[in-house]
Amino acid sequence: MSSPTPAHTDLLDDLRAVLESPLLDIARALSEMLAPTVAHSALVIFTEDCTGRPRKRAGAAEIIDHVTIAELDAIRADRALDRSNGPNDENGSPGAVTTVVVVAGRERDALVWVADTGSLLVVTDPVPAPHTDAGRLHSEVARVWEIVALSIRQQVAAAAPTYLIDSRAASRERSRIVAELSDEHATTLEALLGVLRSPRSTDDAARSTAANIAASAMVRLRSVTDRERSIAEEPVAKAFARLKDDLLPLVRFGGFDMEYVDPPVHGRPVPGEVAHAGRAIVRGAVLALVEQHGVGRVRVQWDCDGHNLLVNIRDDGPGDLTIESASVRPLAARVAALDGEFRVEATPGWGSDIAVRMPLDAPAAPPASATEWALSSREAQVLELVAAGERNRAIARDLSISENTVKFHVANLLRKAGAANRVELAALVRG
Fold this sequence. Notes:
Blueprint: H1 6-19, H2 26-34, E1 38-39, E2 42-46, E3 55-59, H3 61-64, H4 69-85, E4 98-103, E5 106-114, E6 120-124, E7 127-128, H5 134-157, H6 161-196, H7 204-232, E8 233-234, H8 236-254, E9 257-261, E10 270-271, H9 272-290, E11 297-304, E12 308-315, H10 329-337, E13 341-347, E14 351-359, H11 377-387, H12 392-399, H13 403-417, H14 422-430
Parallel strand pairs: 9-11
Antiparallel strand pairs: 1-7, 2-3, 2-6, 4-5, 5-6, 8-10, 11-12, 12-14, 13-14
Helix pairs in contact: 1-2, 6-7, 6-9, 6-10, 8-9, 11-13, 11-14, 12-13
């Protein structure tokens, strides 16, 4: 067998660096890997495996700060249509390599890939290196992207407790922002419709046209809000069905019987990070149980009481599993990260029973005084201006920093203060 060439070794080393990157940094690492082969203005990943931060971004601020989930969803849908209609090459990639997509509010040239996991990769304003074969480039990046997308899914499934905490906070913050924007725009559109529908208004044709525009905008707004919610939450029955799919290979080759007790079909939707953690915990628990000698049957049950996801896993094994078992301790840590409870009961000769309770809602953070927030000097400056009622643009101008940097500091301040919004943050500062 021939040895790898230096080029192949470099590629493998670069790919390894991407796969070893934290989830929050994986877009930057992938962008740096691709840059020598295809220069680009920005790289955006859209993956519903990461419910807290489904967009991973690197590159030009005017793109990564403004690209929306709605735009990425539309690109992915168009790409799926391209794949079904062809013409495709031998690797399943469409014949047209570069396409035009709407990103950050305007049309841009882009390279687009969708992995088998459903994750989307968009590379904007691509400029391949000289003498690069476009079709080969597209196929090679497609292979790399399949590996990276699968790695993202596996990292989420095996995420450390700290990532679960961060993901839950990010999901809550995004849901809050979406709800605020939705309410604000809906109120504006409803007021506009009220005025236009008033019999005291003149010019019937103009009023009718404007009313139709406003009504269509309300439909689109609700659609975007529903899409954001569908990423942040999973119907409990769908989440359990995905768990069955995850366990199918293990059951098929594990030499034991699996029994499932489905959750109520119309139970409350489960936050994405709770659904991911629930599936990972069940997978880990089943592995821990079947590693014991003599296990022939495992029973998995999910339930939802409206406030908690309730998980129960039991076996018919020797009954010597404890919470201190090496295979069980990491599972308990994941549950603790979501403020849940993890319990193991075992009866020698009768089997082990694992019970898990995970709250669907994140606990409210207790308020703290500004002196306890451990602020940097820049955060303290931003906090002073927020408390004075300044908006991001004015703060950026006063401190000679970008609006994106201001947003970053404000997000940190909200997190450190445990405040839901700027008004609440300012109220805490004023005491």
